[in-house]
Amino acid sequence: MFRWADVLKYAKYSNPEPPRRLELPEPEWARRLTPEQYAVLRGRGTEPPYRNAYCRSYEPGRYLCAGCGSRRCGRAARYRAISGWPSFTQPAARNVISYHFDDSHHMQRVEVRCNVCQGHLGHVFPDGPEPAGLRYCINSVSLRRVDEGESPDF
């Protein structure tokens, strides 16, 4: 189980080796992504709280990175938080997310990015439910939900 100490260790020292890498020139990212996805995934933006696709949607399925199709979180890790964005307790695997200290907007946070394509996903906080106590607060536009067993078309 991934814990806050693991998050801080990765953010401070070194992130895990990704399962694969996807590096594209920015014009190709702009072509592949919607303007909203591009602003969040490549521009490290944030979508409006409570007015996004997965904020109040709890349909079963797998959550994939909208940029590269890598699995980010599973249905079992999703929970009902009142943060305004979809929240998860654990990543799908230790090496699918990278962690970076973020002191933008006069706050100290830990940014989470897709470890495959380096797209901005959101932030992780140590105020989630037990047993791990993590809350991955993820932008809906950086995710794509697919049904269990469905193959994504990336």
From TrEMBL:
It is an enzyme of class 1 (oxidoreductase). SUPFAM superfamilies: Mss4-like. It comes from the Bacteria. GO terms for cellular component: cytoplasm. Signal peptide: none annotated. It catalyses: L-methionyl-[protein] + [thioredoxin]-disulfide + H2O = L-methionyl-(R)-S-oxide-[protein] + [thioredoxin]-dithiol. It holds the Pfam family SelR. GO terms for biological process: protein repair; response to oxidative stress. Its EC number is 1.8.4.12. This is peptide-methionine (R)-S-oxide reductase.
